[in-house]
Design a protein that fits this description.
By secondary structure, this protein is mainly β. It contains one helix and eleven strands; from the N terminus they run ββββββαβββββ. The protein has a single domain (3-175), classed as Lipid/polyisoprenoid-binding, YceI-like (Lipocalin). Strands 1-4-5-7-8-9-10-11 form an eight-stranded antiparallel beta barrel. β7 (83-95) and β8 form a beta hairpin. It starts with a strand and ends with a strand.
């Protein structure tokens, strides 16, 4: 079977996350600059070779002060660790269009193995004849596992920033 290369369509994709702020509301953010190398056996994604990288300096939470704090040594330490990377080791079908994607996630120089739920939306041809694939990756990670430890205690109890980070990654891929 021949291999197929895919690229991310950045106009129809988003690398997003949410974190609880003050223990009761979510703050959303995203990475504006990212890239991936995705190679499949034909159109079968179960044996895909997926490598992804996001530019930490492109983080956007709609607040420049917060973004700069996230880039600092308190969190991502972008000066010393400018990229967050993910290298998939498997994409396993669980049922219907549901999958689990597993691999090594590296942030701040720390690599941890993660398994995240994924939904494969299938293949479609756009109005210009391009073959597209849809993939949504969600899940939760604990930021402290990667050394993103900064926090501040609240007078009322609890902390300013949750340890749990919810991932919301929406990818539209283009067959090359």
């Amino acid at each position: 079977m021949s291999t197929t290369k895919w690229s991310i369509d950045p106009t129809h994709s988003a690398i997003g996350f949410k974190v609880k702020h003050m223990m009761f509301t979510n703050v959303s953010g995203k990475f504006e600059n990212y890239d991936a190398s995705i190679v499949t056996d034909g159109d079968d994604f179960t044996n895909a070779n997926i490598e992804f990288a996001a530019d930490i300096n492109s983080i956007d939470t709609r607040n420049a002060d917060r973004d700069n704090h996230l880039k600092s040594a308190d969190f991502f330490d972008a000066e010393n660790h400018p990229k967050m990377t993910f290298r998939a080791s498997s994409l396993t079908k669980t049922s219907g269009g549901n999958y689990e994607i597993a691999g090594d996630l590296t942030m701040r120089g720390v690599t941890k193995f993660v398994t995240l739920p994924a939904e494969f939306s299938g293949l479609m041809t756009d109005p210009w004849g391009n073959t597209k694939a849809g993939l949504n990756i969600s899940g939760k990670i604990n930021r402290k596992d990667w050394g993103l430890n900064w926090n501040s205690a609240l007078e009322t109890g609890g902390v300013l920033v949750s340890e749990e980070v919810k991932l919301d990654i929406e990818l539209q891929l283009v067959k090359q």
